[in-house]
Every structure is written in structure tokens, then in C-alpha cells.
């Protein structure tokens, strides 16, 4: 069993929390873009409040543990592992509640190379507990604006977890899916579920646009977020995201296995 003490040590050793690989420069750039309401940083959230750069920085210091000093502008960023553990407990609590009800759930990730395994383990456990793990709009095309221009992606599911693929760049043997911040895939999935007249998710689990896009549409959403993902924490502060877990979202995929075990144990779900 992964205890809080063991997980805290793992978080710091794997640089999931403590000193992380995300740079202060990257975080501050995201805060400036969010304050300017740039869609690249909003990733589906339409903030109700006025969020200046200092407001975003103060929130991220509160929720993640980054330095609140605006004069600290370069070097590594920091996540407080105690905040990560507290958020993981809240995250597990929401999974435990939907499992108790056998409620339908939707999983989706914009970090398939890193986080697919983490979400897939949770999806397997919720499915075994009687939850319907939804897979709406499989194979549907989604046009996403990237740094290379507008690209057509395909919505797919791997072990019950939604991701997007770029058919133009796929090669045999490549890792599944591409990195994406876009909220468009979750909007397409939710629209398809509604149009089909089937169940809608009572909980959306994921990251990036999957959480923000679902939360903005009024669905309960929980997920993981790095120090350069202020949208999830603003969404949490404004009540549209239920839980945002501060954690580096781009370390090796195997480092997330203890997090999955910890969450499943806290949620009283079979592993």
C-alpha cells in the first residue's frame, strides 16, 4: 500500500512535486497569456472574474506552492507536495462517490504519452465497480488549431481514455495520441453523447482542455495540472472545476503508477 509518507517521498524523488522540470519562465508566460485571455492559456475556461497576472500568480502560489514573488522570474518552478497529497485525497473522494453510485464517467487526456496509463488504471477500476466508462464520438474528426495551422485530428479511445491522433503524422509503432490543450475534443464527445440520447457523464476526469472544456459546460470535472496550467486552478477557484491536482504532468509515465495506486486505495476501489 502506498502511504502518504511513501507517496510524498516519491513525488519529490520523481520531481512530480518539489522542484519540478517546468520552468518559472514557462509558468509566468502562461500566467500572462491567461491574464490576456489568450485561448492557448484559457483552454476552455471563460473566467468570470478579472484575473491579472498578479492575481493568477497569487492563486498559483496558494494552490500549487509556487513562489508568490513576482521578482522570481527564472529557474525551476516548485510544487508543494503537501498540496499535491491533499488534492489527490479530494480527487479520490470524487472517484469514490461516483463508484458508490455506479455513475457514468468520461476520461480524456491531452498528455497521452505520459498520463494514459494513470487514467486507464482508474477507468479499469471504475468499470469494475459498475460505472459506465463512456466512449462517445469515437473516430470523429476534430479540427484543432496548432502551431502548424489548422490540423484535422481523430478522436480515439485507448482502454477507455479519450485522446486525439493526428492522422497526417501517425507512423507504425508511434506512441498513442498527440499532446493537446484544446477543449474541442471534449465538446465533440459531449455533443455526441447528448445527440445519441445515451448517458451523459456525471464526472469527467483528465487534464488540459478535457477538464476545462467540460467544467465550462457545467459537467463536474477533476484532473491533474502543472504550474503552467493556471486555467484548471482558476476554474477550481470559480467553481467550475471540482479538483485540480498540482503535479508535473510531463515526467515518465511509470512515475504516475504510485499515484494511481494511492488514489485507488483512497477511493476504496479494487486495483
Low-confidence stretches: none
Report, as a whole number of angstroms, the end-to-end distance: 11 Å
Into which percentage range does the β-strand content fall?
Answer: 15-25%
Shape: globular
Q: What's the overall average pLDDT, rounded?
A: 95
> What about the largest sheet?
7 strands, mixed
Helix content: 40-55%
Structural class: alpha/beta
Total DSSP E strands: 9
H-E order: HEHHHEHEHEEEHEHEHEH
- Based on CA atoms alone, the radius of gyration comes out at 17 Å
Describe this entry's structure for a reader.
It is built from 10 helices and 9 strands. The model has no long low-confidence stretch (mean pLDDT 95). It has one domain (4-266). The chain has helices at residues 4-13, 24-35, 39-42, 53-63, 81-101, 112-128, 184-195, 208-216, 230-237, 257-266; strands at residues 18-23, 76-79, 105-108, 141-146, 149-158, 161-165, 203-207, 221-225, 243-246. α8 (208-216) links the parallel β7 and β8 (221-225). It is globular. α4 packs across α9. 42% of the residues lie in helices and 18% in strands. The protein has 271 residues and is of the alpha/beta class. The strands form 2 sheets. It has a 7-stranded mixed beta sheet with strand order 4-5-6-3-7-8-9. This is Phosphatase. Pfam families: Phosphatase (PF15698). InterPro entries: Phosphatase_SCO2771.
